[in-house]
Amino acid sequence: MTFLIINIENNLLYNQITRMMVDTGLVKMLRNISKKISYSMGLLLVALGLLMPLKATAQEFTPQQNEQIKKMIQEYLFRNPKDLREAIIALQAYETRQQQKAARMALVTQEKSLYGSSVSFVAGNPDGDVTLIEFFDYNCTYCRRSMKDLMTLIDTDPNLKVIFKEFPILGEGSLYAARAAVASIKQKKYIEFHTAMMQVRGSTGKGNVLEIAEEVGLDVEKLEKDMKAPYITKEIDEVLRTASAIGINGTPAYVIGDSVIGGAVGLAELRRQIAEVRKSGS
Question: How many distinct structural domains can be found in the chain?
Fold first, then answer.
């Protein structure tokens, strides 16, 4: 990428200018300059690589010199829009890496909540070499479409452990269904109930939740009683908190290894992610 040219005749002056950019708030100016030119210009500085380590210290420029340098930067960007585009692409890649790094750090801090719950239902191989965690909502259309992918993985990958996390974010019907699902574990009917719930067309609420519970062989009276248990409230609250901590705000979402994957990405992508974890040994 071409670097900013502002008629610098020696390294000391260059260092003075870059020091000024940090010390006098030019970074902030570039981020706010969108009011006059475009938002993209405000993102340019990091990608241009101007904030490099400085070998010399220098006094601040005068207000007039500051304005001249600002004007030079603006004029350069207008004359070289290609550099601006490349800068934006570079910065977007940088921000993506930073987000991924933050997500990995969050996964470490939330490890106990993610993997250590005695309430969350576990399918597949409990001792599998890879664990996939799904966050879902029974009123989520994309979760319903993705269920087949998850069940295919469970049926075809003998070394995969799957943890189900009820994540009711789409209203009271979702919360009611989530409580029923967790309660169904006591009657050893979770998968049957979960599968049937994911095949519902339209919205989910108390009426069809109890109807489906009866259809799959659950004792509905016992289920309703168990749904009121404090441990279920605690489990769902913990899932909501954990999801927020690792940056999940929609469904479906998956945790595989040190990756948080949002959306209905499909069977092939889930298999690819699992294979990557196995390859890395993490």
Answer: 2
